[in-house]
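YM 10:42: Histidine N-alpha-methyltransferase sequence, as discussed on the call
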Amino acid sequence: MNNVIIERHRSGDDLTTALRQDVREGLSASQKWLPATWFYDARGSELFEEITALPEYYPTRAEREVLLREAPAVAAATGARTLVELGAGSSEKTRALLDALRSAGTLTGFVPQDVSASALTEAAEAIAADYPDLAVHGVVGDFTANLGELPGTSPRLVAFLGGTIGNFPPAERAAFLRSVRAVLKPGEWLLLGTDLVKDPATLVAAYDDARGVTAEFNRNVLTVLNARLGADADPADFDHVAVWDAEHEWIEMRLRARRDLVVHVPGAGLDVEFRAGEHLRTEVSAKFRPEVVRSELADAGFTREHWWTDEANRFGVSLSRA
Ligand code: AVJ
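YM 10:58: structure's back
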């Protein structure tokens, strides 16, 4: 294939340095936490793909329903020449957008970005093979770090799908949206997927499935610590916990220590003590109200021109102009 290049903004060493910093900060805090990005090594990305097919995990299906229905409208509104996808993962749902933009005759390039080198490379190559006329420019990196260098011909459409925006705490979410706005020119576009507030039982089930795939995904962060920082965490020492925080309207995933224990993390120069029952927060996944999404987009300098949901009103997609 000669229509694909992969650019690495983050080497393995950079990742280890970033993880070391996050571990020093998060695991020495009185309420232990780690950023959700550390789930996604090769295995973590695979487990997430498995999650997307679980009966309890509705967001992927709900968003796909919207994208399949509305992709032609997205293409007509934007006339995008480049589709940039942040946190692309497998880019499976993105094909609806690629197909519509290709039919509209405007699309020349696809720029998928992801922290997981393996997931990104596999997805970029699969898309390049299936869309031989498309220039595919994969970027391995963190979407918070490398926005300044988004390649591609204007007008660009930046897609941030799946509800991943919910992984940011509110202040960082606002900063992130502003930084996306800052790299876009007036008249370029953001397509944003947001999971919606709904009854807690449905939400909790989506993050605590009967087969335990989400539990394994959650514990995978310990495997990443072990591999990158030489830690000795035993995943079997931790229970998977998913709770709905009604005040903040977000799901929290946590790992709960089953006994008093110490995790040695030589690569961060840290010994981390856990009391039995103590929690390590591994992810927040915020859920949204339609009006809040509109005003957060407006605060970042975007004008929302379309708001679509699936038939069951579980998931919302906003198309906004910079
Ligand atoms: C990939 C961030 C959208 O928050 O729903 C799935 C990750 N965590 N199950 C989400 C996830 C637990 C997912 N995002």
